[in-house]
User: Fold this.
Amino acid sequence: MRAPSRVEVMLLSTVLLWALNLTVSRYILTHGFEPLAYSSTRYGLATLVFIGLTLALEGSLRLSRRDLGIALAAAGFVFVNQIGFVYALERSSASVLGLILGATPVFAGLFGLVARIEQPGSRFWAGASVSFAGVGLVAVGSGGELSGDLGGVLLGVLTAATWAGYSILVTPLMRRQSATRISALVLGLAWVPIALTGLPQLASQDWSLSWEVWLLFLFATLGPLVVTNELWFRALDRIGAARATLAANLQPFLAAAIAVVLLSETLSALELAGGALIALGILVARRRRVPAARAK
Assistant:
């Protein structure tokens, strides 16, 4: 078996940080932070970081009119995604949301077909199916229940769909712009409606939170948002959104594994079997990207 490629290491690092972020954000939202106040301050800080990096490295934030239009549309997806994410975590559990996010590759494949950006083949769909079955086993083995808050489940589906749409939309931008510049513009444009929507919660938010919450907030911003955006955009450019989002199916299993290491929890046989299926599905789908047919 060949060694993991550089892009696969990037994807694994991204998914590992996302797995941590589900638990971290759930903790933050249940220990004093209002959902929209959390998103507003988190995205505001991340935007400042990316603007500073872009100006330092490239000296400009300028985009062509065409690329700015794509960035605006991508920002719309990010805005809806964040509303879905924070309220899905508030109304549901991290394990349930992790399961639902396993559907992201399916949405990415469908959006890619509709937009004629990607044409996933039979191996991708076979891998996605096997991997998603593994996600289901992980959820069952960990005791996650989908019969809880229906609103939380629907918001989780919205989160998966909008992330897939966002990933498909920004993939062409990577051919012309750096990951840092895209992040600065897209996150900044998304932050405006997030902050406007969150104004009531920002005004009523009690900011005297514990140091643990603030430390986790910094991690959730700099790790699962800033670092992963850089890694994710580079992965999208190299292998496409459909295959990149397939790696997200590792997220619930990694979250369980992290709990074993940090919280001395145990993994059930079903969780172990689910992890094996997730890995098998990703191995099945590991192939070169099939480019979409060019418009004539």
Observations:
- The first helix runs from residue 6 to 29.
- Residues 259 and 265 are 6 Å apart (CA to CA).
